[in-house]
Specification:
The chain contains seven helices and 36 strands. The protein is mostly beta strands.
């Protein structure tokens, strides 16, 4: 059983549907100098909520199934003899209700509530559905009930049938109730890029712009070979034909999307903005996309994978590593990729990505494009999909996170969908493999854990932008010597940008206590970029990163001007049973 060091914060749970400041560590670092005043706070004070509120499973007492002993056992019971119908008497005497509350990637808190119309001494067995049991005994009176709470951790994600059996020690009669639960942890199945939504063409929704302050319901389960029962979906979401600034929110329910105080992408007039999103899917198989702007926009959504509570492929986090840079001839031929040209990247079996990986998590960047266009990444050997991962205008540098299925030969293909040449940069940040068991947990909507524009948005951090050529470290697990979370899925956004620059995100090599005591080492400056911006732009991008040995993530402003940074938690990966 893992040692939980994280504090459950009602504020951060509420932040899922409203802008409520969260708790976490935040220390501004320029070079390797730490703000002493901020570092004095205790690790416990700055723990961030990782335990997203899980689902509840219930089976009321009315569903109790009772049995009574036969023969001598029944006749030997005074209470059974007094009843004209022993089965009816037993049915009236014992009841058990069962509630299960999902917690973390693999655990449940269980309530068994036993009641009886007569005084009874009972033996209770909880069968967890994985071959293990818990037992207890209790006395129950007609005027009261007995509540027993237990916690159980499963060694693997999946669905389990929990049964609670209550046996009357005097009569031998028994009552049973149970339910089927599914862990919050989910594993990934790659999906060839497929367009599920294009409001310009009437794909997945009406052929019309999404109106101002309006929501589009997108059917995911059962669409594009995505099966029923998916828990969340990976979409490359793009907004285009914009005439005013705004943002888009995404959630499994319409109300959650419309009331979310977080965004999955931001845009201004005339922009086409893509961003990779991981969105929970509602029980009806839909996700909801809310245009929070005051003018209509077109929305596109391409699926590249989905998560289910069953064995598939777990995540493996890697330190961001550059594998392709056409400006330097790294990983491919030196020189810009021609218009409508493409190149392959052998990815399986190199840079930490194992052979047999089903998909890779990349940051794909275009720079120096000579005209507008888009990039598409897809499994090598497959037909070019009618999807896009990065959209750009002439001269822009644009980055976007992508999750790309790996071809049968261990390669992926990147295609320049523009008319003219452009440079391409690719950084690998992780992979999905059947050999990995690191599972994803996704909250109903992302919740905000840092906003440098807001006082106290990161515990008691004062509102102050991220300084040029500086780094902000965020301790996401408090003062722990061994990180429990394998990786974090964070939607990062920069805004109020005074000049061009780029953001790097990487695991920190220190512990919380190292920073507090001033014993921290200077983290190595990353060479990879998570997102790029120009003066005045607001730019989002999904970042998947580990938290280092102490659960700390570094955010580097590698520009020469101040910027504001917003970070929303969209999920976390953890190995069940650890």
């Amino acid at each position: 059983m893992r040692n939980r060091r994280l504090v459950i914060s009602a504020a951060l749970v509420a932040a899922a549907v409203g802008l409520v400041p969260g708790t976490a560590s935040a220390v501004s670092v320029s070079g390797a100098t730490t703000s002493g005043a901020t570092a004095k706070a205790s690790g416990a004070d700055r723990d961030v909520v990782r335990k997203v509120k899980g689902r509840t499973f219930s089976s009321p007492a009315e569903r109790t199934v009772t049995t009574v002993p036969s023969g001598a056992a029944a006749k030997g019971s005074a209470r059974a003899q007094q009843a004209p119908d022993a089965a009816t008497a037993a049915d009236q005497r014992l009841r058990v209700a069962v509630n299960a509350f999902a917690e973390g990637v693999d655990s449940f808190n269980l309530e068994s509530i036993v009641s009886s119309q007569e005084y009874a001494l009972v033996d209770v067995v909880i069968a967890w559905g994985d071959g293990t049991t818990d037992t207890y005994n209790a006395s129950v009176t007609p005027r009261d009930f007995h509540l027993y709470r237990a916690k159980h951790q499963y060694a693997a994600i999946g669905s389990y049938e929990i049964k609670v059996t209550v046996k009357d020690s005097a009569t031998g009669g028994a009552a049973e109730n149970g339910l089927t639960v599914a862990t919050e942890g989910t594993e990934f199945t790659a999906h060839e890029p497929k367009r599920l939504l294009d409001t310009r063409e009437g794909i997945g929704a009406a052929r019309a712009k999404v109106g101002a302050r309006s929501t589009v319901a997108l059917k995911v389960a059962g669409a594009g070979k995505v099966p029923a029962g998916v828990r969340s979906v990976v979409l490359n979401l793009t907004v285009t034909n914009t005439t005013a600034p705004g943002h888009v929110s995404a959630a499994q329910e319409k109300g959650l999307a419309e009331n979310a105080q977080t965004s999955v992408l931001n845009y201004v007039a005339g922009q086409s903005v893509p961003n990779l999103v991981i969105v929970p899917v509602g029980e009806d198989g839909y996700v909801h996309l809310f245009n929070a702007g005051w003018a209509p926009v077109d929305l596109l959504a391409d699926v590249t994978g989905y998560f289910t509570a069953s064995k598939a492929a777990g995540y493996g986090a890697l330190a961001p590593t550059r594998i392709v840079d056409t400006r330097e001839g790294q990983g491919t031929a030196k020189g810009q990729v021609p218009g409508y040209g493409s190149f392959d990247i052998g990815i399986a079996g190199r840079e930490g990505v194992p052979a047999g990986a089903t998909a890779v998590a990349l940051n794909l960047t275009v720079t120096n494009p000579r005209s507008a266009g888009h990039l598409t990444a897809y499994p090598a050997g497959k037909t070019v999909p009618t999807t896009s991962n990065v959209n750009f205008a002439a001269g822009q540098t644009v980055a976007n996170a992508v999750i790309v299925p790996v071809g049968a030969d261990g390669k992926i293909t990147v295609r320049n969908g523009g008319w003219n040449p452009a440079d391409v940069v690719v950084d690998v940040v992780g992979y999905y493999s059947p050999q990995s068991r690191s599972a994803l947990v996704v909250p109903p909507v992302p919740f905000r854990i840092l906003d440098t524009r807001e006082n106290g948005s990161w515990n008691d951090r004062p509102a102050f932008p991220l300084a040029p050529r500086s780094m902000e470290w965020l301790g996401l697990e408090g003062d722990t010597p061994v990180a429990e979370v394998d990786a974090w899925a964070l939607n990062t956004t920069v805004t109020n940008t005074g000049g061009d620059g780029f953001l790097s995100v990487a695991p920190d090599p220190n512990l919380w206590s190292d920073y507090v005591r001033g014993k921290n080492v200077k983290p190595q400056l990353p060479v990879s970029s998570a997102l790029n911006w120009t003066a005045g732009a607001t730019v989002p991008n999904l970042v998947q990163t580990s938290g280092g040995k102490g659960g700390i993530v570094d955010f580097w402003n590698q520009g020469w001007s101040f910027v504001d940074l917003v970070v929303d938690l969209t999920g976390f990966y953890e190995t069940p049973g650890a």
